[in-house]
Amino acid sequence: MKKNVTIKDIAKELGVHHTTVSLALRNSKSIREETRKKVWDKANEMGYRPNRLAQGFRNKRSNTIGLLVPNIQHHFFAKFIAEFSEKANQEDYAVMVFQSNEKLATEKKNVEALIANRVAGALVSISKETIEANHFKAFNEEDIPLVFFDRTPTQTGLSRVVADNFHGAYQAVNQMIAKGRKRIAFITGSSHINVYHERLQGYQQALIDHGLPLDEELLIYGDFFMEDGIKGAKKLMQLSPKPDAILGVGDDVAIGVIKFLNGAGYKVPDDVAVIGFDNDPMGIAIEPELTTVDQPIKEMAESALQLLLKNINSDDKKPEEIFLTPRILKRKSC
């Protein structure tokens, strides 16, 4: 009995991903014309016959929402996925989760896969390698509603749900200044990512408003892991004069800072005050417990879902931005 040729068979012959073949065979505008022609030529050569029943299902909207995040292991995104999935289930939607692993190439493949699965809508937080949003235009071309959250492209005209990161960082520095700190350092992430850029702006504006200098040597660029906090704190504590407060761009970074300071014989917060971002549960496991900027994750998940459902159920998909206010959660590190 002759074996039916599948989309994966064609993909293997062409050396491309099967979602690319699927999109090409549906003449998706997200696939270049040259690639579509190659796929169709190979499909005809191999005797491919589409499964009309399956195709009929695919061409209809599902009750599935696609959720694309940079890293599932990160507390913020893990908590967001849990909150969003629960709320989506209450609305009779299933959630399909993808992660880019902070890779732009993987993110682009994830976009193709979400489109191939005919999701009802997509919710996306971009990778650290993502600078422009051209590959997300495929959602619009396929008439799939798209909402960004947390990390978002800089382009205008996009629907997004974000925390007021400027305000969060500003309030964190205010807290440090209220405790008498004047030499405040900041360990931050890549400035092209909106989240980190806005936190940097909030940090700088708070210093300016209190008449404190913007000292470049107190600004450390890195990533957002504990190891970055350890390395950053080590470098900062070699300065003269030393900082008397350190703001971490995330709780993992701030926990790394405390870990280094404790090991190096400094007292937190007596010698150096420390504040983080995100309210990671590990913040209460470190000694002293970490003061943090508490992100409104539950509210963000609810707002993102409602905005996406609004776009799914409406023909008028005007871009909309929602800003949520974080709060300082005071503990013992500042």
UniProtKB/TrEMBL annotation:
Pfam family, one: Peripla_BP_3
SMART domains reported in the protein's UniProt record: HTH_LACI
Lineage of origin: Bacteria, Pseudomonadati, Bacteroidota, Bacteroidia, Marinilabiliales
Lineage top rank: taxon: Bacteria
Keyword Transmembrane helix among record annotations: no
Database matches in CDD domains: HTH_LacI, PBP1_LacI_sugar_binding-like
One example GO MF annotation: DNA-binding transcription factor activity
Keywords: DNA-binding, Transcription, Transcription regulation
Protein known as: LacI family transcriptional regulator
Every HTH lacI-type domain range: 5-59
